Amino acid sequence: MQIVEVDGHDPVEFARFFAVRDDVRRAEQEFPVGLGQEETRGLFTGNDPDERSNGLGLVDGDTWLGMAWLDWWLTENTHVVDVEIAVDPRFRRQGVASQLLDEVKARALADGRTQLTTSVIASPDGTSSGTAFAEARGFVRKHTELHQVIELPMDDAVVDALGRAVPGYELVQWGDRTPDAWLGEFADAYTVMSRDVPHGDRSVEIQVWTPERLVAREKRRVEQGRFTHTTVAVDGDGRLAAYTQMGGNRAVPERLYQYDTFVRPDHRGRGLGIAVKIPNLRSLQAELDHPAVLHTWNAPENAPMIAVNQKLGFRASDRRVALELELS
């Protein structure tokens, strides 16, 4: 057996690497989620100033036993490597995951990193083989998010019944690229959202967004085949009070995502969350010509947003557990 490094430039090798992870997700999740193969390869081969990604595989001849996906943060959280490990079920309990984790640790330490983070899919009670493996090897549970799903398209009558205007606010919508007039406001909202979103006990540095960083991110997103629908609420002073984004990747049309929904603290309690979600959902469904599942994640302590999702008809699927390991 040997460790091989995967950088995405060899499409055949990358396909074998990706298949291990995708097969495991399809087998273990009722509603599998994750980036498509080419979208992921774009992350590995791209030149993102905020992060770089690469992979490791444990192989025995032509047989891939398991894989590790590493994200190296380059702007904030530069002490961290985020890792996801997947093992072909045929080769579990044979030390495959442990060998991959040992290799990840060695590479992280050699790069001066002091912490590994991981997110593991778990059952509603917060446990799984993944959480058991991580905790047995010293990872500490730091946060849990509830994964909710809904099948699309929703009945238009149901969507319309939930929609309502909030006096004093105007709704503005756009697609893949933020209009120039809103770049400053939207970048600032991203920064505040990064600060205010529940982090549990995780030790994370806040992402500081600028218009330039936002433009670059949107450009990369389009290049990766992603599409986005955005709806914002604007107050009487012309300030962005709330926003929501939904989208996906055309290469994986059955998987759609509710990305951020954020309401500025001084505008909360007025129903702006659902006020922006409903028209954004209408926009998303207007282009939907096939069945799909819309996925969203929220911290359990974010009860108002979970309640909004339940009103829309989302139901609980599983949980995503965040864990950290200090390196020495």
UniProtKB/TrEMBL annotation:
Domain N-acetyltransferase: 4-188
GO molecular function annotations of the record: acyltransferase activity, transferring groups other than amino-acyl groups
Domain of life: Bacteria
Transmembrane regions listed in the UniProt entry: none
Pfam families listed in its UniProt record: Acetyltransf_1 (PF00583)
Xref: InterPro entries: Acyl_CoA_acyltransferase (IPR016181), GNAT_dom (IPR000182)
Keywords linked to the UniProt accession: Transferase
SUPFAM superfamilies to which the protein is assigned, alphabetical: Acyl-CoA N-acyltransferases (Nat)
Name the UniProt record assigns to this protein: GNAT superfamily N-acetyltransferase
